[in-house]
Amino acid sequence: LKQVFNKDKTFRPKRKFEPGTQRFELHKRAQASLNSGVDLKAAVQLPSGEDQNDWVAVHVVDFFNRINLIYGTICEFCTERTCPVMSGGPKYEYRWQDDLKYKKPTPLPAPQYMNLLMDWIEVQINNEDIFPTSVGKCKEEVL
């Protein structure tokens, strides 16, 4: 493990972002949150008197929105031609199955997989049985 974490042998390219671009703005936000001294443990702790399911639901939706924003910045570089397989490195390939159009696990290009995934998550988030908009009405067995 020492070889993996040896900073002299780890290639870390410097990232430069053009001012005025979406990436530059995201970079500034990320730097601000990293340098803000925020105690992450305290930031995600359930506030006193709040319903745990409501708290989790808020963070799931926030996480989805952040992932959507991040994906939006890289999707132009991952096309069906440049990313013909949805993978997690050379050892893992993700296949899509939704029991509607794709009844069996199906290999897809990464952009198509991601679009289906983000659409599926959005449907779940908008499902009142899973993420009700009335405070304190969440079904425990779903979460």
Written overview of the protein:
The protein has helices at residues 22-35, 40-44, 52-74, 110-126; strands at residues 95-96, 106-107. The chain is mostly helical and 143 residues long. The protein has 2 domains: 1-76, MOB kinase activator (Butyryl-CoA Dehydrogenase, subunit A, domain 3, Up-down Bundle); 79-131, no CATH class. It is extended. Helices cover 41% and strands 3% of the residues. It has a two-stranded antiparallel sheet with strand order 1-2.
Task: Considering the chains and any ligands shown, give keywords for the structure.
two-stranded antiparallel ribbon; mainly alpha; Butyryl-CoA Dehydrogenase, subunit A, domain 3; 143 residues; 41% helix; 2 strands
**Strand line-up across the major sheet:** 1-2
> Which CATH architecture of the largest domain is right?
Up-down Bundle
* Principal-axes shape call: extended
- Given the structure, what is the number of helices? 4
The proportion of strand residues reads under 5%
CATH class of the largest domain: Mainly Alpha
What name is given to the CATH topology of the largest domain?
Answer: Butyryl-CoA Dehydrogenase, subunit A, domain 3
Radius of gyration: 19 Å
Average predicted local confidence, pLDDT: 76
The major pleated sheet works out as: 2 strands, antiparallel
Fraction of helical residues: 40-55%
